[in-house]
Amino acid sequence: MGILFKVCVVLLACCISFFGRADALQITYFPAPESIDDTRFDYATELLKKALEKTVIPDGPFKMKSGGKMNVGRAFQFLEEGRIVNVGWSSPTVEREEKFIPILIPINKGLLGYRVFLIKKQNREKFSSINTLQELKKLKVGQGHVWNDVEVFKANNFRVVTGPDYEGLFEMLSAERFDYFSRGINEAPKEYEERKDKFPNLFIEQRILLYYPWPKYFFTSKKTPKLAERIERGLRIMIKDGSFEKHFMMHHKQDIERVNLKGRKLFKIHNPLLPPTAPVHQKELWFDPFD
Q1: Contact predicate 66/27, CB 8 Å
Q2: pLDDT of the chain along its 291 residues, tens only?
Q3: 183 burial level (CB within 10 Å; 0-12, 13-18, 19+)
Q4: What does residue 84 show for φ and ψ, rounded to 5 degrees?
Q5: CA–CA separation, 156 vs 270, rounded Å?
Q6: Cβ neighbours of residue 288 under 8 Å, at least 6 residues apart?
Q7: Of 73, 126, 214, 265, whose CB count within 10 A is highest?
Q8: How many Cβ atoms are within 10 Å of 278's Cβ, its own excluded?
Q9: What is the phi/psi pair of residue 98, to 5°?
C-alpha cells in the first residue's frame, strides 16, 4: 500500500508539473483599431475572450493579442496561410465560407444590419422629406473602400462614394463628399460622441432605419479546426447560460434606446452576399427591435 501511495503521489506531481508547464494557446486576432478613437472592435474582442474563458477547464489557458493594423483582405490572406493571425471576425461571403471555417453564430446578433445615418446638421431637412426608398437612393452614401457593404449598396442601386480609411470618412462627410455615412446602430452613437467636438456639425439622422441581413462571424483557418470548435463551444455555453445576451445588452442597450428604432421609418434591402448557410431561422441568434 505504501509503495502504491508513493507511486500515486509521484504521478500526481508529474501531472501538476506537466499542466503547470503547458503553454497557453496564443490567440492573435483581427481586425485591430485604426485610431485611438476607434472602439468598434471592443465588443467582439471581449466576446471572444469570454467564450474562450468558458472552455479553459477542458481546453487549457490562452493568451490574446491583436495582429496589428492591416486591411481585411491582407488579414484573411494571413489567416489562410496560417501565420500572424489565427482568428478574425467579419461579415460572411460564400467565398470566405469556402476558404475558412465560419462559426455560424452572429456575434452581434445581426445588429449591424440595422443602419442609421451620420449626416451634417444643416442637411436634416433633406432627410426629413424622404418617404420612399427611391428618394433615399438619390442621395450619396459614404463607405470604406474595401467594406463589403459597398457591394450591398451597389447591388441595390445606391449611389456610393468610398474613402480609403475609416477616419477619413468623417472628413469626407464634413466636406460633403457624400450625404450620409451609413452606420450600425451600435456604431453611430459612439462615433458621434467621440467626434462631435472635432466635427461640430455631425448629427445622427432621426427618421430613417435601413435594414439588410448583416451578421458577423468569427473565422478561423481550416488548419485549426480544434480552435474553431472551441470558440463555437464557448459561444454556445454563453448562449445557454445567458452570458451572451448579458454581454450583448451591456454593450448595446443604451445605443438601441438612444436611436429610437420603433419611431423610425424602416426601409429593407437585400444582401446579395449573404451565404445560404446563414442561420436566419434560428431567431434566438438574432436581434429584432420590433419583436
Answers
A1: no
A2: 455 544 444 444 444 444 444 589 999 999 988 788 788 899 999 999 999 999 999 999 999 999 998 888 899 999 999 999 999 999 999 999 999 999 999 999 999 999 999 999 999 999 999 999 999 999 999 999 988 899 999 999 999 999 999 999 999 999 999 999 999 988 899 899 999 999 999 999 999 999 999 999 999 999 999 999 999 999 999 999 999 999 999 999 998 898 998 889 999 999 999 999 999 999 999 999 887
A3: buried
A4: 70, -55
A5: 7
A6: none
A7: 214
A8: 20
A9: -80, -35
Nearest to 96 by CA among 272, 221, 203: 221
DSSP string, 177-212: SSSEEEEETTTHHHHHHHHTTT-TTEEE-SSEEEE-
How many angstroms separate the CA atoms of 11 and 88, rounded? 40
Task: Tell me the sheet residues that pair with 89.
Answer: 218
| Length, in residues, of the chain | 291
Q: In the Cβ-directed half-sphere of 63, how many Cα atoms lie within 13 Å?
A: 6
Query: Could you give the CA distance from residue 59 to residue 66 in angstroms, rounded to a whole number?
Result: 21
Q: Could you write out the DSSP letters of every residue in 147-159? A: -THHHHHHHTT-E
